[in-house]
Backbone:
Protein backbone atom coordinates (compact mmCIF):
# COMPACT_ATOMS: atom_id res chain seq x y z
CA UNK A 1 0.00 0.00 0.00
CA UNK A 2 0.90 3.65 -0.01
CA UNK A 3 3.70 4.53 2.34
CA UNK A 4 2.79 8.21 2.18
CA UNK A 5 1.64 9.92 5.34
CA UNK A 6 -1.88 11.11 4.85
CA UNK A 7 -4.50 12.72 6.99
CA UNK A 8 -7.62 10.62 7.44
CA UNK A 9 -9.82 13.16 5.65
CA UNK A 10 -8.44 12.37 2.24
CA UNK A 11 -6.39 9.24 2.71
CA UNK A 12 -8.87 7.02 0.91
CA UNK A 13 -8.02 6.72 -2.75
CA UNK A 14 -10.95 7.92 -4.84
CA UNK A 15 -12.41 5.18 -6.97
CA UNK A 16 -11.36 5.13 -10.62
CA UNK A 17 -14.19 4.38 -13.03
CA UNK A 18 -13.95 0.94 -14.63
CA UNK A 19 -12.45 0.76 -18.11
CA UNK A 20 -15.78 0.10 -19.80
CA UNK A 21 -17.44 2.93 -17.89
CA UNK A 22 -14.67 5.24 -19.06
CA UNK A 23 -15.22 4.16 -22.64
CA UNK A 24 -18.97 4.57 -22.38
CA UNK A 25 -18.60 8.09 -20.97
CA UNK A 26 -16.03 9.10 -23.55
CA UNK A 27 -18.28 7.79 -26.31
CA UNK A 28 -21.27 9.73 -24.97
CA UNK A 29 -19.18 12.90 -24.99
CA UNK A 30 -17.73 12.21 -28.44
CA UNK A 31 -21.17 11.63 -29.88
CA UNK A 32 -22.31 15.00 -28.56
CA UNK A 33 -19.27 16.74 -30.02
CA UNK A 34 -20.25 15.53 -33.51
CA UNK A 35 -23.23 17.87 -33.61
CA UNK A 36 -23.04 20.39 -36.42
CA UNK A 37 -19.59 19.21 -37.51
CA UNK A 38 -18.26 18.84 -41.02
CA UNK A 39 -17.42 15.22 -40.15
CA UNK A 40 -21.09 14.44 -39.66
CA UNK A 41 -22.21 16.29 -42.80
CA UNK A 42 -19.51 14.59 -44.84
CA UNK A 43 -20.71 11.20 -43.61
CA UNK A 44 -24.29 11.95 -44.55
CA UNK A 45 -23.65 13.30 -48.05
CA UNK A 46 -20.49 11.49 -49.19
CA UNK A 47 -22.41 8.52 -50.55
CA UNK A 48 -24.52 10.76 -52.76
CA UNK A 49 -21.80 11.86 -55.18
CA UNK A 50 -20.91 8.49 -56.77
CA UNK A 51 -24.58 7.55 -56.85
CA UNK A 52 -25.53 10.84 -58.49
CA UNK A 53 -22.83 10.40 -61.15
CA UNK A 54 -23.92 6.85 -61.91
CA UNK A 55 -27.55 7.88 -61.92
CA UNK A 56 -26.86 10.62 -64.50
CA UNK A 57 -24.86 8.25 -66.68
CA UNK A 58 -27.72 5.73 -66.75
CA UNK A 59 -30.41 8.34 -67.02
CA UNK A 60 -28.90 9.88 -70.16
CA UNK A 61 -26.93 7.01 -71.71
CA UNK A 62 -28.51 3.95 -70.11
CA UNK A 63 -30.10 2.74 -73.36
CA UNK A 64 -26.64 2.59 -75.01
CA UNK A 65 -24.91 0.90 -72.06
CA UNK A 66 -27.66 -1.66 -71.61
CA UNK A 67 -28.46 -2.34 -75.26
CA UNK A 68 -27.66 -6.06 -74.78
CA UNK A 69 -30.79 -6.32 -72.62
CA UNK A 70 -31.22 -8.48 -69.53
CA UNK A 71 -30.89 -7.24 -65.96
CA UNK A 72 -29.39 -3.74 -65.66
CA UNK A 73 -28.47 -4.14 -61.97
CA UNK A 74 -25.02 -5.82 -62.28
CA UNK A 75 -23.63 -3.11 -64.58
CA UNK A 76 -25.26 -0.33 -62.59
CA UNK A 77 -23.94 -1.58 -59.24
CA UNK A 78 -20.43 -2.19 -60.48
CA UNK A 79 -20.25 1.25 -62.14
CA UNK A 80 -21.39 2.95 -58.94
CA UNK A 81 -19.13 0.84 -56.75
CA UNK A 82 -16.07 1.42 -58.90
CA UNK A 83 -16.70 5.16 -58.99
CA UNK A 84 -16.87 5.13 -55.20
CA UNK A 85 -14.00 2.73 -54.64
CA UNK A 86 -11.34 4.31 -56.85
CA UNK A 87 -10.92 7.75 -55.44
CA UNK A 88 -13.92 8.75 -53.39
CA UNK A 89 -13.83 6.10 -50.72
CA UNK A 90 -10.14 6.50 -49.81
CA UNK A 91 -10.51 10.28 -49.83
CA UNK A 92 -13.63 10.06 -47.71
CA UNK A 93 -11.84 8.00 -45.08
CA UNK A 94 -8.90 10.43 -45.15
CA UNK A 95 -11.20 13.41 -44.62
CA UNK A 96 -13.40 11.69 -42.06
CA UNK A 97 -10.57 10.65 -39.73
CA UNK A 98 -8.89 14.04 -40.05
CA UNK A 99 -12.13 15.89 -39.33
CA UNK A 100 -13.08 13.80 -36.31
CA UNK A 101 -9.64 14.18 -34.72
CA UNK A 102 -9.59 17.86 -35.64
CA UNK A 103 -12.64 18.50 -33.43
CA UNK A 104 -10.35 18.22 -30.40
CA UNK A 105 -7.35 19.90 -31.97
CA UNK A 106 -9.35 22.92 -33.06
CA UNK A 107 -10.72 23.39 -29.55
CA UNK A 108 -7.21 22.90 -28.05
CA UNK A 109 -9.03 20.28 -26.04
CA UNK A 110 -6.41 17.54 -25.83
CA UNK A 111 -5.01 19.02 -22.63
CA UNK A 112 -8.54 19.18 -21.25
CA UNK A 113 -9.43 15.68 -22.37
CA UNK A 114 -6.34 14.10 -20.85
CA UNK A 115 -6.89 15.95 -17.57
CA UNK A 116 -10.25 14.22 -17.14
CA UNK A 117 -10.66 11.01 -15.15
CA UNK A 118 -10.61 8.79 -18.23
CA UNK A 119 -7.59 6.88 -19.39
CA UNK A 120 -5.79 7.55 -22.64
CA UNK A 121 -6.96 4.16 -23.84
CA UNK A 122 -10.59 5.20 -23.52
CA UNK A 123 -9.99 8.42 -25.45
CA UNK A 124 -8.14 6.49 -28.16
CA UNK A 125 -10.75 3.74 -28.45
CA UNK A 126 -13.72 6.08 -28.33
CA UNK A 127 -12.66 8.26 -31.26
CA UNK A 128 -11.71 5.16 -33.22
CA UNK A 129 -15.17 3.71 -32.62
CA UNK A 130 -16.80 6.98 -33.69
CA UNK A 131 -14.84 6.94 -36.93
CA UNK A 132 -15.61 3.25 -37.53
CA UNK A 133 -19.31 3.85 -37.00
CA UNK A 134 -19.40 6.94 -39.24
CA UNK A 135 -17.52 4.99 -41.91
CA UNK A 136 -20.09 2.19 -41.71
CA UNK A 137 -22.98 4.66 -41.80
CA UNK A 138 -21.53 6.32 -44.91
CA UNK A 139 -21.15 2.97 -46.67
CA UNK A 140 -24.67 1.89 -45.78
CA UNK A 141 -26.04 5.21 -46.97
CA UNK A 142 -24.12 4.78 -50.21
CA UNK A 143 -25.59 1.32 -50.78
CA UNK A 144 -29.06 2.52 -49.83
CA UNK A 145 -28.86 5.52 -52.15
CA UNK A 146 -27.50 3.37 -54.96
CA UNK A 147 -30.38 0.90 -54.78
CA UNK A 148 -32.87 3.76 -54.46
CA UNK A 149 -31.37 5.42 -57.53
CA UNK A 150 -31.80 2.15 -59.44
CA UNK A 151 -35.38 1.91 -58.32
CA UNK A 152 -35.94 5.53 -59.35
CA UNK A 153 -34.53 4.73 -62.80
CA UNK A 154 -37.05 1.91 -62.96
CA UNK A 155 -39.79 4.50 -62.58
CA UNK A 156 -38.31 7.25 -64.76
CA UNK A 157 -36.84 5.03 -67.48
CA UNK A 158 -38.87 1.79 -67.50
CA UNK A 159 -37.18 0.79 -70.78
CA UNK A 160 -33.92 0.12 -68.87
CA UNK A 161 -35.64 -2.68 -66.94
CA UNK A 162 -34.62 -1.84 -63.37
CA UNK A 163 -38.16 -2.55 -62.21
CA UNK A 164 -38.44 -5.96 -63.81
CA UNK A 165 -35.29 -7.60 -62.45
CA UNK A 166 -34.49 -8.47 -58.83
CA UNK A 167 -31.88 -6.54 -56.91
CA UNK A 168 -28.86 -8.79 -56.20
CA UNK A 169 -28.99 -8.20 -52.43
CA UNK A 170 -26.58 -10.94 -51.52
CA UNK A 171 -23.85 -9.41 -53.69
CA UNK A 172 -24.50 -5.97 -52.25
CA UNK A 173 -24.22 -7.28 -48.68
CA UNK A 174 -20.98 -9.09 -49.38
CA UNK A 175 -19.61 -6.05 -51.15
CA UNK A 176 -20.54 -3.87 -48.18
CA UNK A 177 -18.73 -6.15 -45.77
CA UNK A 178 -15.65 -6.54 -47.94
CA UNK A 179 -15.44 -2.86 -48.83
CA UNK A 180 -15.69 -1.96 -45.16
CA UNK A 181 -12.83 -4.30 -44.33
CA UNK A 182 -10.87 -2.84 -47.24
CA UNK A 183 -11.09 0.68 -45.77
CA UNK A 184 -9.88 -0.34 -42.30
CA UNK A 185 -6.16 -0.38 -43.10
CA UNK A 186 -6.04 3.15 -44.43
CA UNK A 187 -8.43 4.29 -41.72
CA UNK A 188 -5.98 3.14 -39.04
CA UNK A 189 -3.01 4.77 -40.78
CA UNK A 190 -4.91 8.04 -41.11
CA UNK A 191 -6.12 7.89 -37.52
CA UNK A 192 -2.62 7.52 -36.13
CA UNK A 193 -1.24 10.20 -38.45
CA UNK A 194 -4.01 12.58 -37.32
CA UNK A 195 -3.39 11.89 -33.65
CA UNK A 196 0.35 12.10 -33.99
CA UNK A 197 0.54 15.44 -35.78
CA UNK A 198 -2.59 17.02 -34.31
CA UNK A 199 -3.18 19.19 -37.31
CA UNK A 200 -5.69 19.03 -40.10
CA UNK A 201 -3.31 19.75 -42.95
CA UNK A 202 -0.78 17.01 -42.26
CA UNK A 203 -3.12 13.99 -42.27
CA UNK A 204 -5.08 15.31 -45.27
CA UNK A 205 -1.82 15.96 -47.12
CA UNK A 206 -0.46 12.54 -46.25
CA UNK A 207 -3.75 10.92 -47.25
CA UNK A 208 -4.08 12.72 -50.60
CA UNK A 209 -0.44 11.99 -51.40
CA UNK A 210 -0.91 8.33 -50.55
CA UNK A 211 -4.07 8.03 -52.67
CA UNK A 212 -2.38 9.63 -55.68
CA UNK A 213 0.76 7.53 -55.21
CA UNK A 214 -1.39 4.42 -54.97
CA UNK A 215 -3.02 5.10 -58.32
CA UNK A 216 0.42 5.42 -59.87
CA UNK A 217 1.50 2.17 -58.25
CA UNK A 218 -1.54 0.05 -59.18
CA UNK A 219 0.46 -2.05 -61.67
CA UNK A 220 3.07 -2.92 -59.05
CA UNK A 221 3.07 -6.58 -58.01
CA UNK A 222 2.81 -5.56 -54.34
CA UNK A 223 -0.05 -3.10 -54.89
CA UNK A 224 -2.37 -5.39 -52.92
CA UNK A 225 -0.32 -4.64 -49.81
CA UNK A 226 -0.96 -0.87 -50.00
CA UNK A 227 -3.88 -0.06 -47.69
CA UNK A 228 -4.98 2.84 -49.89
CA UNK A 229 -5.45 0.49 -52.87
CA UNK A 230 -7.70 -1.97 -51.03
CA UNK A 231 -11.11 -0.32 -51.64
CA UNK A 232 -10.44 -0.25 -55.38
CA UNK A 233 -9.29 -3.87 -55.26
CA UNK A 234 -12.58 -4.83 -53.69
CA UNK A 235 -14.62 -2.83 -56.20
CA UNK A 236 -12.76 -4.63 -59.00
CA UNK A 237 -13.37 -8.05 -57.51
CA UNK A 238 -17.02 -8.04 -58.63
CA UNK A 239 -17.36 -10.23 -61.70
CA UNK A 240 -20.09 -10.04 -64.25
CA UNK A 241 -20.96 -13.52 -65.49
CA UNK A 242 -23.82 -14.94 -67.48
CA UNK A 243 -25.50 -15.78 -64.18
CA UNK A 244 -25.35 -12.13 -63.16
CA UNK A 245 -23.15 -10.29 -60.66
CA UNK A 246 -20.84 -12.46 -58.63
CA UNK A 247 -18.53 -11.77 -55.76
CA UNK A 248 -16.49 -14.17 -53.66
CA UNK A 249 -18.09 -14.86 -50.29
CA UNK A 250 -14.76 -14.56 -48.49
CA UNK A 251 -12.10 -11.96 -47.87
CA UNK A 252 -9.56 -11.50 -50.64
CA UNK A 253 -5.84 -11.28 -49.98
CA UNK A 254 -5.77 -7.48 -50.10
CA UNK A 255 -8.58 -7.34 -47.54
CA UNK A 256 -6.59 -9.52 -45.16
CA UNK A 257 -3.67 -7.17 -45.66
CA UNK A 258 -6.02 -4.29 -44.82
CA UNK A 259 -6.99 -6.00 -41.57
CA UNK A 260 -3.32 -6.60 -40.84
CA UNK A 261 -2.54 -2.92 -41.36
CA UNK A 262 -5.48 -2.02 -39.14
CA UNK A 263 -4.33 -4.15 -36.23
CA UNK A 264 -0.62 -3.46 -36.60
CA UNK A 265 -0.85 0.29 -37.06
CA UNK A 266 -3.26 0.70 -34.15
CA UNK A 267 -1.05 -1.25 -31.75
CA UNK A 268 2.15 0.51 -32.78
CA UNK A 269 0.42 3.88 -32.92
CA UNK A 270 -1.14 3.49 -29.50
CA UNK A 271 2.18 2.56 -27.92
CA UNK A 272 3.76 5.53 -29.66
CA UNK A 273 1.08 7.93 -28.43
CA UNK A 274 0.46 6.48 -24.99
CA UNK A 275 3.48 7.88 -23.21
CA UNK A 276 3.60 11.14 -25.05
CA UNK A 277 3.57 14.51 -23.30
CA UNK A 278 0.54 16.67 -23.97
CA UNK A 279 1.75 20.09 -24.93
CA UNK A 280 -1.25 21.63 -26.63
CA UNK B 1 2.04 23.72 12.57
CA UNK B 2 1.72 22.45 9.08
CA UNK B 3 -1.08 20.17 7.94
CA UNK B 4 -0.55 17.21 5.67
CA UNK B 5 -0.36 18.65 2.19
CA UNK B 6 -3.23 18.04 -0.17
CA UNK B 7 -0.90 18.59 -3.06
CA UNK B 8 2.81 17.99 -2.86
CA UNK B 9 5.64 17.72 -5.33
CA UNK B 10 8.96 16.24 -4.38
CA UNK B 11 12.05 17.20 -6.31
CA UNK B 12 9.96 17.79 -9.42
CA UNK B 13 12.03 18.43 -12.54
CA UNK B 14 11.09 18.65 -16.18
CA UNK B 15 12.88 19.28 -19.43
CA UNK B 16 11.84 19.69 -23.02
CA UNK B 17 14.47 17.71 -24.83
CA UNK B 18 17.74 18.99 -23.41
CA UNK B 19 16.27 22.29 -22.24
CA UNK B 20 15.60 22.28 -18.48
CA UNK B 21 12.26 23.85 -17.62
CA UNK B 22 11.72 22.96 -13.96
CA UNK B 23 14.34 22.19 -11.40
CA UNK B 24 13.72 20.54 -8.03
CA UNK B 25 10.32 22.09 -7.33
CA UNK B 26 8.84 21.14 -3.96
CA UNK B 27 5.31 22.49 -3.84
CA UNK B 28 3.37 22.15 -0.64
CA UNK B 29 -0.31 23.02 -0.75
CA UNK B 30 -2.33 22.67 2.42
CA UNK B 31 -5.96 21.62 2.38
CA UNK B 32 -8.38 24.52 2.37
CA UNK B 33 -5.89 27.07 1.13
CA UNK B 34 -5.82 29.29 -1.92
CA UNK B 35 -2.32 28.85 -3.17
CA UNK B 36 -1.15 31.67 -5.40
CA UNK B 37 1.42 30.35 -7.82
CA UNK B 38 3.36 33.35 -9.00
CA UNK B 39 6.01 33.87 -11.57
CA UNK B 40 6.81 35.87 -14.67
CA UNK B 41 5.72 34.51 -18.02
CA UNK B 42 7.92 31.60 -19.04
CA UNK B 43 9.01 30.80 -15.49
CA UNK B 44 7.38 27.36 -15.65
CA UNK B 45 3.92 27.93 -14.18
CA UNK B 46 1.98 26.28 -16.98
CA UNK B 47 4.48 23.44 -17.20
CA UNK B 48 4.02 22.83 -13.48
CA UNK B 49 0.23 22.88 -13.85
CA UNK B 50 0.44 20.38 -16.69
CA UNK B 51 2.67 18.14 -14.60
CA UNK B 52 0.18 18.30 -11.73
CA UNK B 53 -2.49 16.95 -14.08
CA UNK B 54 -0.33 14.18 -15.49
CA UNK B 55 -0.26 15.80 -18.94
CA UNK B 56 3.54 15.84 -18.88
CA UNK B 57 5.90 13.26 -17.51
CA UNK B 58 8.40 14.55 -14.96
CA UNK B 59 12.09 14.03 -15.69
CA UNK B 60 12.60 13.46 -11.97
CA UNK B 61 10.63 13.72 -8.77
CA UNK B 62 7.06 12.84 -7.94
CA UNK B 63 3.64 14.42 -7.50
CA UNK B 64 1.28 13.51 -4.70
CA UNK B 65 -2.38 14.50 -4.69
CA UNK B 66 -4.47 13.71 -1.63
CA UNK B 67 -1.47 11.73 -0.39
CA UNK B 68 -1.31 9.41 -3.40
CA UNK B 69 1.22 9.16 -6.18
CA UNK B 70 -0.20 10.74 -9.32
CA UNK B 71 1.89 8.56 -11.62
CA UNK B 72 0.25 5.44 -10.20
CA UNK B 73 -3.34 6.58 -9.66
CA UNK B 74 -3.83 9.28 -12.29
CA UNK B 75 -7.39 8.49 -13.36
CA UNK B 76 -8.64 7.94 -9.81
CA UNK B 77 -7.06 11.15 -8.53
CA UNK B 78 -8.25 13.27 -11.43
CA UNK B 79 -11.77 12.35 -10.38
CA UNK B 80 -11.34 14.88 -7.56
CA UNK B 81 -9.54 17.56 -9.53
CA UNK B 82 -10.99 20.31 -11.68
CA UNK B 83 -8.69 22.28 -13.93
CA UNK B 84 -8.55 25.22 -16.27
CA UNK B 85 -5.28 25.26 -18.17
CA UNK B 86 -4.41 28.39 -20.15
CA UNK B 87 -7.17 29.12 -22.64
CA UNK B 88 -10.29 27.12 -21.92
CA UNK B 89 -10.76 24.20 -24.31
CA UNK B 90 -14.07 25.05 -25.94
CA UNK B 91 -15.79 23.52 -28.94
CA UNK B 92 -16.86 26.52 -30.97
CA UNK B 93 -19.51 24.61 -32.90
CA UNK B 94 -21.31 23.70 -29.69
CA UNK B 95 -23.35 25.96 -27.43
CA UNK B 96 -22.13 26.87 -23.95
CA UNK B 97 -24.57 24.34 -22.55
CA UNK B 98 -23.35 21.61 -24.88
CA UNK B 99 -19.75 22.39 -24.01
CA UNK B 100 -20.46 21.80 -20.33
CA UNK B 101 -22.54 18.77 -21.22
CA UNK B 102 -19.66 17.16 -23.16
CA UNK B 103 -17.42 17.18 -20.10
CA UNK B 104 -20.31 16.23 -17.83
CA UNK B 105 -20.88 13.07 -19.85
CA UNK B 106 -17.15 12.40 -19.87
CA UNK B 107 -16.98 12.58 -16.08
CA UNK B 108 -20.23 10.80 -15.42
CA UNK B 109 -21.54 13.63 -13.25
CA UNK B 110 -25.26 14.05 -12.45
CA UNK B 111 -27.20 15.76 -15.26
CA UNK B 112 -28.42 18.53 -12.98
CA UNK B 113 -24.86 19.83 -12.55
CA UNK B 114 -24.76 21.37 -16.02
CA UNK B 115 -27.37 23.98 -15.18
CA UNK B 116 -25.91 24.47 -11.70
CA UNK B 117 -22.39 25.34 -12.83
CA UNK B 118 -23.70 27.54 -15.64
CA UNK B 119 -25.69 29.47 -13.04
CA UNK B 120 -22.69 29.61 -10.73
CA UNK B 121 -20.61 31.47 -13.32
CA UNK B 122 -23.56 33.54 -14.53
CA UNK B 123 -23.91 32.08 -18.00
CA UNK B 124 -27.44 30.71 -17.76
CA UNK B 125 -28.84 33.35 -20.10
CA UNK B 126 -26.20 32.73 -22.74
CA UNK B 127 -26.10 28.96 -22.37
CA UNK B 128 -27.77 28.31 -25.72
CA UNK B 129 -25.58 30.54 -27.81
CA UNK B 130 -22.71 28.92 -29.69
CA UNK B 131 -19.42 29.24 -27.84
CA UNK B 132 -17.86 30.95 -30.86
CA UNK B 133 -19.98 34.01 -30.10
CA UNK B 134 -18.68 34.24 -26.53
CA UNK B 135 -16.42 37.07 -25.40
CA UNK B 136 -13.05 36.26 -23.87
CA UNK B 137 -14.47 36.76 -20.39
CA UNK B 138 -17.43 34.50 -21.06
CA UNK B 139 -15.12 31.84 -22.43
CA UNK B 140 -13.04 32.02 -19.28
CA UNK B 141 -16.15 31.70 -17.13
CA UNK B 142 -17.39 28.77 -19.20
CA UNK B 143 -14.00 27.12 -18.72
CA UNK B 144 -14.35 27.63 -14.98
CA UNK B 145 -17.87 26.18 -15.03
CA UNK B 146 -16.48 23.06 -16.71
CA UNK B 147 -13.70 22.85 -14.12
CA UNK B 148 -16.30 23.01 -11.33
CA UNK B 149 -18.57 20.33 -12.82
CA UNK B 150 -17.55 17.45 -10.62
CA UNK B 151 -17.51 19.58 -7.46
CA UNK B 152 -13.78 18.82 -7.16
CA UNK B 153 -11.84 19.05 -3.91
CA UNK B 154 -8.88 20.56 -5.71
CA UNK B 155 -9.07 23.24 -8.38
CA UNK B 156 -6.09 24.01 -10.59
CA UNK B 157 -6.54 27.31 -12.38
CA UNK B 158 -3.88 28.54 -14.74
CA UNK B 159 -4.15 32.32 -15.20
CA UNK B 160 -7.94 32.31 -14.77
CA UNK B 161 -8.26 36.06 -15.06
CA UNK B 162 -6.63 36.14 -18.49
CA UNK B 163 -8.71 38.35 -20.72
CA UNK B 164 -11.14 39.38 -18.01
CA UNK B 165 -12.09 43.02 -17.55
CA UNK B 166 -11.69 44.61 -14.09
CA UNK B 167 -15.22 43.62 -13.14
CA UNK B 168 -14.63 40.09 -14.26
CA UNK B 169 -11.44 39.94 -12.23
CA UNK B 170 -13.28 41.03 -9.10
CA UNK B 171 -16.06 38.51 -9.74
CA UNK B 172 -13.51 35.73 -10.23
CA UNK B 173 -11.83 36.71 -6.97
CA UNK B 174 -15.16 36.64 -5.12
CA UNK B 175 -15.95 33.28 -6.62
CA UNK B 176 -12.60 31.81 -5.52
CA UNK B 177 -13.10 33.14 -1.98
CA UNK B 178 -16.59 31.70 -1.88
CA UNK B 179 -15.44 28.32 -3.15
CA UNK B 180 -12.87 28.15 -0.39
CA UNK B 181 -14.95 29.57 2.42
CA UNK B 182 -18.30 27.91 1.70
CA UNK B 183 -17.32 24.77 -0.12
CA UNK B 184 -13.95 24.07 1.48
CA UNK B 185 -12.13 23.82 -1.83
CA UNK B 186 -8.40 23.91 -2.14
CA UNK B 187 -7.39 26.13 -5.03
CA UNK B 188 -4.11 26.55 -6.82
CA UNK B 189 -4.23 29.64 -8.97
CA UNK B 190 -1.34 30.80 -11.09
CA UNK B 191 -0.69 34.35 -12.16
CA UNK B 192 2.09 36.65 -13.23
CA UNK B 193 0.53 39.55 -11.31
CA UNK B 194 1.15 39.78 -7.59
CA UNK B 195 -1.66 42.32 -7.22
CA UNK B 196 -4.14 39.70 -8.31
CA UNK B 197 -2.83 37.05 -5.96
CA UNK B 198 -2.36 39.07 -2.78
CA UNK B 199 -6.05 39.91 -2.61
CA UNK B 200 -7.19 36.32 -2.62
CA UNK B 201 -4.39 33.91 -1.73
CA UNK B 202 -3.67 32.47 1.69
CA UNK B 203 -0.38 30.98 0.55
CA UNK B 204 2.08 31.93 -2.11
CA UNK B 205 4.72 30.13 -4.13
CA UNK B 206 7.00 32.14 -6.35
CA UNK B 207 8.70 30.44 -9.27
CA UNK B 208 11.55 31.93 -11.23
CA UNK B 209 13.39 30.28 -14.11
CA UNK B 210 12.06 26.89 -13.14
CA UNK B 211 12.93 27.06 -9.45
CA UNK B 212 10.74 27.81 -6.48
CA UNK B 213 12.30 30.91 -4.90
CA UNK B 214 9.69 31.45 -2.21
CA UNK B 215 6.95 29.41 -0.62
CA UNK B 216 4.93 30.22 2.45
CA UNK B 217 1.86 31.97 3.74
CA UNK B 218 0.93 35.38 2.41
CA UNK B 219 1.94 36.80 5.79
CA UNK B 220 5.40 35.34 5.45
CA UNK B 221 5.74 37.02 2.08
CA UNK B 222 4.62 40.28 3.67
CA UNK B 223 7.21 39.81 6.42
CA UNK B 224 9.85 39.24 3.82
CA UNK B 225 8.82 42.59 2.48
CA UNK B 226 9.24 44.38 5.85
CA UNK B 227 12.69 42.85 6.06
CA UNK B 228 13.49 44.74 2.92
CA UNK B 229 12.42 48.18 4.21
CA UNK B 230 15.08 50.83 3.92
CA UNK B 231 15.97 54.19 5.33
CA UNK B 232 16.63 57.00 2.89
CA UNK B 233 18.85 59.68 4.28
CA UNK B 234 19.42 63.06 2.60
CA UNK B 235 22.36 65.12 3.63
CA UNK B 236 25.04 67.38 2.14
CA UNK B 237 27.78 64.86 1.45
CA UNK B 238 26.94 61.21 1.74
CA UNK B 239 30.59 60.15 1.47
CA UNK B 240 31.62 62.37 4.42
CA UNK B 241 28.85 60.98 6.57
CA UNK B 242 29.90 57.43 5.88
CA UNK B 243 33.49 58.20 6.80
CA UNK B 244 32.41 59.95 10.00
CA UNK B 245 30.14 57.14 11.15
CA UNK B 246 31.78 53.92 9.95
CA UNK B 247 29.95 51.68 12.41
CA UNK B 248 26.39 52.98 12.00
CA UNK B 249 26.61 53.40 8.25
CA UNK B 250 28.60 50.26 7.47
CA UNK B 251 25.80 48.79 5.33
CA UNK B 252 24.80 52.07 3.73
CA UNK B 253 24.84 52.55 -0.02
CA UNK B 254 25.61 55.92 -1.52
CA UNK B 255 23.01 56.48 -4.20
CA UNK B 256 23.69 60.15 -4.92
CA UNK B 257 26.29 62.66 -3.68
CA UNK B 258 23.80 63.72 -1.03
CA UNK B 259 21.78 60.52 -0.49
CA UNK B 260 22.30 57.29 1.39
CA UNK B 261 20.26 54.10 1.62
CA UNK B 262 20.59 51.81 4.54
CA UNK B 263 18.60 48.76 5.58
CA UNK B 264 15.98 49.54 8.15
CA UNK B 265 16.41 47.50 11.33
CA UNK B 266 14.54 49.25 14.15
CA UNK B 267 13.17 52.60 15.32
CA UNK B 268 16.00 52.91 17.85
CA UNK B 269 18.54 52.40 15.12
CA UNK B 270 16.87 55.11 13.04
CA UNK B 271 16.95 57.55 15.99
CA UNK B 272 20.55 56.70 16.69
CA UNK B 273 21.58 57.38 13.11
CA UNK B 274 19.79 60.75 13.14
CA UNK B 275 21.35 61.76 16.47
CA UNK B 276 24.83 60.66 15.41
CA UNK B 277 24.64 62.60 12.15
CA UNK B 278 23.59 65.77 13.90
CA UNK B 279 26.24 65.25 16.59
CA UNK B 280 28.84 64.88 13.83
CA UNK B 281 27.80 68.27 12.50
CA UNK B 282 26.26 67.03 9.28
CA UNK B 283 23.07 68.58 7.93
CA UNK B 284 20.05 66.27 7.83
CA UNK B 285 17.70 67.41 5.07
CA UNK B 286 15.51 64.39 5.07
CA UNK B 287 15.08 61.00 6.70
CA UNK B 288 12.35 58.66 5.57
CA UNK B 289 11.38 55.02 5.65
CA UNK B 290 10.75 53.36 2.31
CA UNK B 291 8.60 50.25 2.40
CA UNK B 292 8.83 48.27 -0.80
CA UNK B 293 5.49 47.18 -2.15
CA UNK B 294 4.63 43.51 -2.44
CA UNK B 295 5.22 44.02 -6.11
CA UNK B 296 8.80 45.16 -5.46
CA UNK B 297 9.33 42.10 -3.30
CA UNK B 298 7.97 39.91 -6.06
CA UNK B 299 10.19 41.60 -8.62
CA UNK B 300 13.13 41.20 -6.28
CA UNK B 301 12.38 37.48 -5.92
CA UNK B 302 12.02 37.02 -9.62
CA UNK B 303 15.02 39.00 -10.77
CA UNK B 304 17.19 36.82 -12.93
CA UNK B 305 19.19 34.64 -10.61
CA UNK B 306 20.99 32.28 -12.91
CA UNK B 307 22.89 30.65 -10.05
CA UNK B 308 19.59 29.20 -8.81
CA UNK B 309 18.90 27.19 -11.91
CA UNK B 310 22.41 26.31 -12.95
CA UNK B 311 22.99 23.48 -10.48
CA UNK B 312 22.01 20.45 -12.55
Residues:
Amino acid sequence: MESTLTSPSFSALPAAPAALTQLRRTLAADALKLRRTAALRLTLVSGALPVLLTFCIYFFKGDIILKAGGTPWPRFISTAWQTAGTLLLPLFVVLLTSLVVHIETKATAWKHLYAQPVGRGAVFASKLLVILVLNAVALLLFAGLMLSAGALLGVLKPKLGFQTYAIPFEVVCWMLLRTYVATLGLLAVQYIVSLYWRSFVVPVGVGMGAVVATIALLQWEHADKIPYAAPLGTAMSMKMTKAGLEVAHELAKHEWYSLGWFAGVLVVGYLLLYRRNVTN
Amino acid sequence: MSATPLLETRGLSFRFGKRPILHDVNLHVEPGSIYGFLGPNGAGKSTTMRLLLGLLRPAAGSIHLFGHDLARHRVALLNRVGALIENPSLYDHLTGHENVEATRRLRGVAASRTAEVLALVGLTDNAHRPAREYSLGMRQRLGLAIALLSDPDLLLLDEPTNGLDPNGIIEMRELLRKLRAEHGKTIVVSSHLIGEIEKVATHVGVIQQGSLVFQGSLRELQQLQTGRARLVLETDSAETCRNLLPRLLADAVVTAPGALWLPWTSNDHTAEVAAALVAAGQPLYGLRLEQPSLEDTFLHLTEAKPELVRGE
Notes: Chain B touches chain A at residues 3-4, 6, 31, 50, 53-57, 64, 66-69, 73-81, 83, 85-94, 98, 101-103, 105-108, 146, 153 (CB under 8 Å).
